[in-house]
Design goal:
This protein is an alpha+beta fold. The chain contains 25 helices and 27 strands. It has an 8-stranded mixed beta barrel, surrounded by 4 helices. Strands 2-1-5-4-3 form a 5-stranded antiparallel β-sheet. The protein is flat, with a radius of gyration of 40 Å.
Length: about 800
């Protein structure tokens, strides 16, 4: 302004106004040129944005195709695996029953909606209807497919096909079920419909000269296409530019791995640049026209624009920067034009951001179901409390608790009722522990922090009040729910100076409370930590024992009183630890069941027992105890089938011993499996009969081959009339149901005489023999039976 003021003093008014007008026009022209430059840059940005959008969509479409095909392959693999595991189908394969195999393949093809399904045997023979070229190619796929792969793409003269391969095991591979899906125009059209843009998908195959070419002229055979595909095969996955018959296009090549890993076909996704730029043409024209109109408008209203827009925009920019830095700000709305509405929208956005931040912060530190603080919040509060008590010489107690039988509530009444129960329990805990910090750790687990607990009286009193409150039935959504709780308590810093240690020790105390019968509370003791360490070490040793072959089997004979000879042996698991020596089963079986290792251990026992029994005479059976966890495993029937198949043992020489604990998860499924075992020819015995509450009902549900009378009745059978009456009743009941009986734990001749007189079928116990090693079994079978003479 200083130069203008000096000019105004030196020039006449009219000349100064003209000069001022020219200066305004000059400024307007400069601004208009800037506007035109911006328009040009916008055109470039639009073109770049179009290219980036198309390339991103191509990459996304390729990824979507990969995910969809992975899901399709998994689904088809599952369908083929069901057929491959079918006993009838494997039998048909083993016997070469071609009509049955073709019928099964036809049914599978119809269910999976796959036009061509084949079965390939180890010699390369192919069963199934399909194109001759495809049948010839399929025959070699299982032998050339890389290890660990179950699908591949092959190219034939009739086109490309994607194959899904599933092995048939019995138990070794005896063939393969193969789905063949054509990568034809229909498949490509399906892929094109998945994209947000109208891209073109085509399959490339090598021509007679080794060059890549497409179908229907969508990609012609030339050097540029070969180089583009070659880069994709070499590992380049980004889209690029490719000249196609309809002009330049954005393209992405996805090599489709063949059986050997090398691609036999390539998926080409393309989108012409002309089509990509079409949606932006209107915008480009509009920007150009806006630049021209802006030139005129700037010349006419630059000062007003500066006064009416520049200052509000600057204020809006400052407010946006303040909001970016996390400061809540608002703009004063002084007009109802576009700028005023923008300011009002900004104020609404600012208020919404603050409200969402508060809500996100609350969700990050609170449980969405109960509204209580969550595990993260609990950890922060516990760290703060431990820091405070370490400085002041105070103490802090944490109570960890969960609900007894909560899983049953969810299973019987549904998850909504279970969620309502958790909310009600959370409210109850907040009311009882008003001086504590109540949190929900997850599931049905809750925790309470009690600050400044100089002694354990407050923690003890609170735990007892929680147990008293939860032992009363709760009314939840019209249901009266009887629940309870177990509580573990740890007091810091004595039981732990950091949050992890203190929480771990409270969990150990909670575990001890559950072991002691539930519905009680227990304080942490150092012995609990030592016991937990021993248990963890025992679990590690169990895993090592399973891998290094530290287990062996001992066998206790079962003497047949009817035929005066050994009728079988019960397989007993022994663990010879390299440092601990012989570890009794009572010490490690429960750990194996809790960790799930009992399934793998039980599989080994079944395989080894059947293998050993093959060397015995035909009339001698082997009995194997089965854990409830192992019995409920979905693959248990296959384990027995494989043990019998590999060993060659006839099924009627295997006797599976179960207890009534296997019925706890549901009687119908157990009975179904028992009938399946019986259909295989395997014998089933009910062990520890008479010790449970439902033994008689189980006899009604399933006709067992044998009942094993528990040792608790045998111990006093010789001198206690009531025990003798019970044994007599069991023997009579078994005889009426055409079942055998075995008395366990027979240790003296008086017991033997009483059992003989009552008609017991066989005995087992130290009177006849202690468990012996596998190498001593043949000698015992061949030796005289003097022990029971």
């Amino acid at each position: 302004m200083a130069p203008l003021q000096r000019l105004r003093g030196a020039l006449p008014a009219w000349r100064f106004r003209r000069l001022s007008t020219r200066l305004v026009v000059l400024y307007g022209m400069l601004f208009a040129l800037c506007l035109l430059s911006i328009a040009g840059i916008s055109q470039i940005v639009i073109m770049k944005n179009a290219r980036d959008t198309v390339r991103a969509e191509l990459s996304t479409s390729g990824s979507v195709y990969d995910r969809i095909w992975a899901l399709r392959a998994q689904s088809l693999g599952d369908s083929a695996s069901v057929l491959a595991r079918d006993f009838g189908f494997r039998s048909a394969v083993a016997s070469g029953d071609r009509p049955t195999i073709e019928s099964a393949l036809a049914n599978l093809s119809a269910r999976a909606d796959v036009p061509q399904t084949f079965f390939v045997d180890p010699t390369g023979g192919v069963i199934g209807h399909g194109l001759p070229e495809l049948r010839q190619a399929v025959a070699t796929v299982p032998g050339t497919l890389a290890a660990g792969r179950h699908d591949a793409v092959i190219a034939t003269r009739k086109g490309a096909f994607r194959l899904i391969v599933s092995p048939v095991l019995a138990p070794m591979e005896i063939g393969w079920v193969i789905f063949a899906l054509p990568l034809d125009a229909s498949e490509m059209a399906s892929l094109q419909r998945l994209s947000a843009i109208p891209l073109t998908a085509t399959i490339l195959q090598r021509g007679a000269g080794g060059h890549w070419r497409g179908v229907a002229g969508l990609a012609r055979e030339d050097a540029a296409l070969n180089m583009f595909v070659g880069r994709a095969i070499a590992g380049e996955r980004a889209p690029g530019a490719l000249y196609l018959p309809n002009g330049w296009a954005a393209a992405l090549a996805k090599p489709l791995a063949g059986p050997s890993g090398a691609p036999e076909a390539v998926l080409l996704l393309s989108y012409p640049w002309t089509a990509a730029m079409a949606p932006y043409r209107t915008m480009q024209i509009g920007i150009t026209l806006a630049g021209i109109v802006g030139l005129i408008l700037v010349l006419l209203g630059s000062r007003r624009l500066a006064n009416d827009i520049a200052r509000p925009i600057a204020a809006l920019d400052a407010a946006a920067r303040a909001l970016e830095e996390g400061n809540r700000t608002e703009l004063s709305v002084q007009s109802d034009d576009e700028v005023g509405r923008l300011a009002h929208s900004f104020n609404l956005m600012s208020a919404g951001i603050v409200e969402r931040e508060h809500r996100i912060t609350h969700l990050a530190f609170h449980d969405s179901l109960t509204g209580l603080p969550n595990r993260i919040n609990f950890r922060q509060q516990l760290d703060t409390a431990l820091t405070r008590v370490s400085k002041r010489g105070e103490s802090v107690a944490i109570l960890c608790l969960d609900l007894d039988g909560f899983k049953g509530v969810n299973n019987s009444l549904g998850h909504p009722v279970g969620d309502a129960l958790l909310r009600q329990v959370g409210q109850l805990l907040c009311g009882l522990a008003s001086d504590g910090f109540v949190t929900r750790l997850g599931g049905d687990e809750f925790a309470i922090i009690l600050d400044d607990s100089a002694d354990s009286d407050r923690a003890r009193a609170l735990a007892q009040s929680i147990l008293d409150a939860l032992c009363q039935p709760l009314h939840v959504d019209g249901h009266q729910i009887a629940t309870g709780s177990s509580i573990g308590i740890a007091v810091g810093p004595n039981d732990g100076t950091d949050a992890d240690t203190l929480l771990k020790n409270a969990d150990l105390a909670l575990y001890r409370a559950k072991q002691d019968g539930r519905g009680v509370f227990r304080f942490f003791e150092p012995a609990l930590d030592a016991a937990a360490r021993r248990r963890r070490q025992l679990e590690l040793d169990l895993r090592e024992a399973l891998q290094s072959g530290q287990f062996r089997l001992a066998f206790q004979p079962i003497f047949d009183l009817k035929k005066d000879r050994i009728g079988g042996f019960e397989a007993l698991l022994r663990w010879e630890h390299p440092k601990r020596g012989n570890v009794p089963p009572i010490e490690f079986i429960s750990v194996a069941e809790d960790t799930g290792l009992i399934i793998a251990i039980g599989d080994w026992v079944m395989q080894e027992a059947c293998r050993q029994a093959t060397a015995w005479p035909e009339h001698v059976r082997v009995a194997v105890n089965v854990s409830p966890l192992q019995f409920r495993n979905s693959g248990f029937q296959n384990v027995i089938f494989q043990a019998l198949s590999r060993s060659g043992l006839t099924p009627n020489r295997l006797e599976v011993e179960i207890t009534e604990l296997v019925f706890l998860e549901g009687e119908s499924s157990v009975v179904t499996l028992l009938h399946q075992l019986r259909a295989m020819g395997v014998r089933v015995a009910l062990d520890d009969f008479g010790t449970g509450y439902s033994s008689l009902s189980y006899l009604r549900s399933f006709p067992f081959d044998k009942i094993k009378i528990d040792k608790s009745f045998v111990n006093s059978v010789a001198h206690d009339d009531s025990s003798a009456a019970i044994v007599r009743a069991i023997v009579d009941l078994a005889s009426a149901l055409h079942m055998e009986t075995t008395a366990e734990g027979v240790e003296d001749c008086d017991q033997l005489a009483r059992l003989r007189g009552q008609g017991c079928s066989s005995i087992q116990g130290f009177l006849f023999s202690r468990p012996i090693e596998a190498r001593d079994v043949p000698a015992m079978i061949a030796g005289p039976m003097t022990a029971v003479a």
